[in-house]
Design brief:
The chain has 205 residues and is α/β, with parallel strands linked by helices. It is built from 10 helices and 5 strands. Strands 2-3-1-4-5 form a 5-stranded parallel β-sheet, sandwiched between helices.
Length: 205
């Protein structure tokens, strides 16, 4: 990779597929991580985003202090694909602004690349800012078990979330690289490391 080239690596996939593990491998290769979920949490505290959500989902998703109750929002937003799309319309404009700020900061800090872990990368339109996209996919049953353990969800709540997401084909058709993760963490790490070696050899000048 040229020293003058700043690369934004889009990383996406379904919930529970293993994006966080892939991100950590990229960080080991000196790539700055930008987490869209973390930015989304910040976005939920902005007045612009709160107003959008209040209009879309009503007052029941807010606590007595006017802050978003994330579990209530998730239950409403993941009920149907339409409501999930509505959530995205409410939050994406703010997340895009925060993402652009994070990319600029990383470049100012001297990083040559960022890996942008964004579950809704394509839906937000941010894939257009990326040099290329990597998608991580896994079987739905495997992902359900992972997010039940990770987020302390019931099977019903896990499937509610997963059923609102896109199938594998949505990612395979839009991504330059694909990582399948139905195995162990060690196997996923090995796949990510092999991809890093390929990428940074390819982009090295």
């Amino acid at each position: 990779m040229s020293k003058n080239e700043f690369m934004i690596i889009g990383l996406t996939g379904q919930s529970g597929a293993g994006k966080s593990t892939v991100t950590k491998v990229f960080e080991d290769y000196g790539v700055k991580a930008v987490d869209a979920d973390a930015l989304a949490h910040i976005a939920l505290k902005t007045e612009k985003c709160k107003e959008n959500l209040r209009v879309a989902f009503g007052d029941s998703i807010f606590d007595e202090n006017g802050e978003v109750i994330r579990k209530s929002l998730a239950k409403a937003a993941f009920a149907t694909k339409e409501s999930t799309e509505l959530l995205n319309k409410c939050t994406h404009p703010v997340i895009i602004e925060l993402s652009e700020e994070a990319f600029e900061k990383a470049e100012e800090e001297g990083f040559n690349a960022v890996v942008f872990d964004a579950p809704t990368l394509f839906e937000s339109g941010l894939h257009g800012m990326c040099s290329f996209v990597i998608s991580v996919i896994a079987d739905k049953e495997v992902r359900a078990q992972r997010i039940m353990q990770r987020d302390n969800l019931s099977f019903e709540d896990a499937m509610l979330r997963l059923n609102a997401q896109y199938p594998d084909s949505f990612y395979t058709e839009k991504s330059r690289y694909l990582i399948e993760n139905n195995g162990t963490v060690e196997e996923l790490e090995e796949k990510a490391e092999n991809l890093c070696k390929e990428l940074f050899n390819e982009y090295k000048t």
